[in-house]
Amino acid sequence: MNAGALPSFDRRALSRALTRASRMSVDELLRTRASGAQPAPRIGITGAPGVGKSSLIARLARVRAQKAWPLAVVAVDPTSPDSCGSLLGDRIRMEDLADDPRVFVRSIPSGGTRDGLADNLPDVLSTLDAFGFAEIVVETVGVGQAEFGVRELVDVEVLLLMPGLGDSIQAMKAGILETADLIVVNKADLDGARRMALELKSTLAQRRTAAAPRIVLAKAGDDAGLLELDALLDDALREAFARRPADARRRRFARYRLQRLVARRLELAFAGLPESRFDAPPEEIYEEILATMARGHRGPGRAPGQPEEES
Amino acid sequence: MNAGALPSFDRRALSRALTRASRMSVDELLRTRASGAQPAPRIGITGAPGVGKSSLIARLARVRAQKAWPLAVVAVDPTSPDSCGSLLGDRIRMEDLADDPRVFVRSIPSGGTRDGLADNLPDVLSTLDAFGFAEIVVETVGVGQAEFGVRELVDVEVLLLMPGLGDSIQAMKAGILETADLIVVNKADLDGARRMALELKSTLAQRRTAAAPRIVLAKAGDDAGLLELDALLDDALREAFARRPADARRRRFARYRLQRLVARRLELAFAGLPESRFDAPPEEIYEEILATMARGHRGPGRAPGQPEEES
Predict the structure, then answer these.
(1) Dist. CA A90–CA A308, nearest whole Å
(2) 3-state secondary structure of A138
(3) How many domains does chain B fold into?
């Protein structure tokens, strides 16, 4: 945590570096090592569209940036032309942060990946580490499996719910409740918020073998819940760092990064096979896939969903 | 479609064959070719827990088995000790089918896979093909990405929703609405069912470039919706078969099967790496992973989540 001096990162250089990282192909990424910088503390925040993630993150970022700055917010946008409306709304709420010199906000497209996470997210985060960020908040939309993915990239995971959307049921079946470190019942001025918190508490008490996550009630315009969340995040980060020494954190992030890259490389190898190939015995196709993967990382092989290089 | 004779499949032999298929390791499966039998028409039915999938499928199976028998229902159970209650309820509803000689019901555990689909599901289905089933209904729980997975294994996909659970919103964000061929608004006697159907209709009209899926209202004890669904399924299957000739269907299923097997083989290769290995440059680990995968399919390598062999 820094104090006293003004934030020193170069916004334009950082912007360029992030654009570079987000445009690298899978094969380029396979040849790239993560920066040697120790990863900054990472907070993941996830929830369904409409639960108020962006508003809460904007307020939370201001509070946390007073202790840990520069602070970065990385928002992973589901790449769907249909959801432009809501995403635009989200980004406008985030722009409230633009006047805060201690905060940097970056939104990256998910690039059509199955689990709603951008392929290059690990490298975006490690670029932020290299620029000396003191803390990173990663916002993801809870579209199912993304929560499991992002869990491997952050130290602490916060799940946002709100009364009335059936989200608690959805969350339970998707198993997210089992992995979240903290749960925020947002829009707590709506009917049913307290009941929802109580139900969650009793469900979690039955299900979790380890300590159940703390539940916070939050709502717009009231800072009590926000400050409670802030304090609980400090505790949760402390515990996460105690549980995983620096080596273990770095390896965990590296492992996840490589796993995604290899899985994507595999998708590309499959995409290159003509349909008629699938009349062959599986073992034969398997050998061919492995051969393609071995050759692959010398080819051009841009990751699908990545924008073209600027001309 | 058969008519006249009694169903001829040997339930005990089939049961044994399915148990064998569901217990094979990834490496054994990689050495196995799908049976030469032409795959039976496959109907996928998905939806959140509580929308009434099993009851509807039990009723639908009776209706369809009058035209296409023997008919098999394969229910993929999310492997979670917490959900035993609801699953037990589902299975009990399914047991209503046990007295119907034209119907065979099998429930298989999802085995803790990320997308909620069993690794061996393709082989369970192709075992049913080899036993001469005339139609297969695959039930999956809509836990997020499973819908995308199962989409590749069936000819027609039905999404079940119900009023009040917030499912329509959930479905929209997860993109399931974009891929379903038919949508059933179940429990149509509940408030808001017609409004939900109208909302879905207008949403779909805006979003889908191809023909929007038909929406059916269904409820317990009333056969009108069920018979409408049955007729629409006939149409949808006919269209699916016209769109994809026999070769294309077989290759599509074979492709998906192999993709899952290789992905799982990759997971096993990663699981075998010690954490300290992730300090190495990514390219080096990548080469090691490929080497392990090339060796792997000669080793024992039981798939995680698979039961042990009987002793």
Answers:
(1) 25
(2) strand
(3) 1
Tell me the whole-structure pTM to 2 decimals.
Answer: 0.75
pLDDT digits (tens, 9 = 90+) for B251-307: 999 998 898 888 888 888 998 899 999 999 999 999 999 999 988 644 444 443 344
Alpha-carbon distance of A171 to A144, in angstroms, equals: 9
Q: What is the ipTM of this complex?
A: 0.77
State whether residue B139 is helix, strand or coil.
Answer: strand
The contacts of residue A90 (CB under 8 Å, 6+ apart) are: A53, A54, A75
Angle at CA of residue A232, ends A255 and A150, nearest 5°: 25
Which of B275, B1, B2, B175 is CA-nearest to residue A78? B175
In a domain, B234, yes or no: no
Which residues in chain A touch residue B83, judged by CB atoms under 8 angstroms apart? Answer: 173
* Assigned domain for B207 exists: no
- A223 with A265, same domain: the answer is no
- A191 shares its domain with A54: yes
Radius of gyration of chain A measured on its C-alpha atoms: 20
Q: What is the span of the domain harbouring residue B132?
A: 11-155+244-252
Q: Please count the other Cβ atoms lying within 10 Å of the Cβ belonging to residue B273.
A: 16
Q: From the list B164, B174, B290, which residue is nearest A143 (CB)?
A: B174
pLDDT tens readout for residues A271-291: 889 999 999 999 999 999 999
Chain B segment 87-116 residues within 8 A of A by beta carbon are 114-115
How far is the alpha carbon of A231 from chain B, nearest alpha carbon, in Å?
Answer: 31
Residue in A30, A165, A278 nearest the CB of B166: A165
Which of helix, strand or coil describes residue A20?
Answer: helix
Question: In this predicted structure, what is the pLDDT of residue B304?
Answer: 38
Which residue of chain A is at minimal alpha-carbon distance from B248? A275
Alpha carbons within 13 angstroms on the beta-carbon side of residue A100 total 22
